[in-house]
Amino acid sequence: MNFELTEEQLAVRDAARDFAQNELKPGVIERDSTMAYPTEQIKMMGELGFMGMMVSPEYGGGGMDTVSYALAMEEISKIDNSCSVTMSVNNSLVCWGLETFGTEDQKQKYLTKLATGEWIGAFCLSEPEAGSDATSQRTTAIDMGDHYLLNGTKNWITNGAKSKVHLVIAQTDTEKGHRGINAFIVETSWDGVAIGAKEDKLGIRSSDTHTIMYNDVKVPKENRIGEDGFGFKFAMKVLTGGRIGIAAQALGIAAGAYELAVAYSHDRTAFGKPINQHQAIAFKLADMATDIDAARMMVHRAAWMKDNHMDYTMAAAMAKVFASDAAMKHTVEAVQVHGGYGFVKEYHVERLMRDAKITQIYEGTSEIQRVVISREILKKGNLYAPILGSSKMTV
Ligand code: CAA
Fold it and tell me: What is the pTM of this model?
């Protein structure tokens, strides 16, 4: 067993940390306040290789492992979660989905632009009445012979307006249930794609979240991903990997709040000594450090299992549920450590507390992660740990 990171992984972590501290931190409070999309910052992230980290170099990506991606996500999420969710959707859902399941033509046409950050992608599964219950798709794509005709509405779509490409999940045959669902690559410039107003959110406020309407959009046959009826499994497989990215985001939020709390606790004195010399504060820091360490190990294990072609379904769900609960709990505590200063924007922790909440909701709520974990336990009889007795999984 080896818990050490490689030289390359450490270099990626340090580069992401420097970028987040130097380029993202200066304007993050203003962007959160005004909901301004981080256009320049996302452009820089593309140039630095953060938008297609795991994509093979032949398609313009960084060819890195999932552990490196999780390390970069953690560092960027310590500072700006609007940037990290944009990065996460583009990397884990869109690029990974296209590289793993797309045709060579689809990869040449779309992945090469998405991997470099020249284009941004969105993943369109959730609907007004299909969130956790993802098989209840109302969006339809009717086979018209030489194309599909797409109609429906998708909700809470990250990168909805800024993206050039949507991966859209739609029902092609209502009689077949989840086996009658397909996934399509839709260009946002096509006739019939309408974008709703940007959502005014509790957290990740400058990220680009919209309702999308598809009205008689003609989708070429060659833009379907995989075999007919593969769309639901495509969504599940893509989300399983995506959950590692969101778990890393939640870890970054918790770790960012913890770093701020530790620094503040040295500077602030009360009753004649730094507040971290009072057990009430020191124990909070100890609990934060312990949960963050556990979350980090779970995130890295899930990423490592994915890189080693093991079945990481349970490990990814466990990492997400644990890290997102830790992020919520410890950002609240970090605000408490800061006292009145924690309640004002200048000290950053209140923003991290607001950002934490979404990690318990998107890419599968904490309740859905528990559904996934309990099903895996009962299906496999694996009562020990995700890694012991794990089967191989090619994708
Ligand atoms: N990998 C591969 N296949 C899978 C799978 C997985 N992880 N999970 C399920 N499947 C397959 C099943 O094997 C089954 O196929 P067969 O019938 O051929 O055996 C099929 O999919 C249906 O599975 P279930 O019967 O288990 O389906 P279900 O209706 O009970 O739902 C669920 C399962 C886990 C609850 C699923 O609906 C789910 O994950 N829901 C949450 C959806 C979600 O995460 N939404 C997030 C929105 S995207 C987002 O947030 C992005 C963003 O912008 C940030």
Answer: 0.96
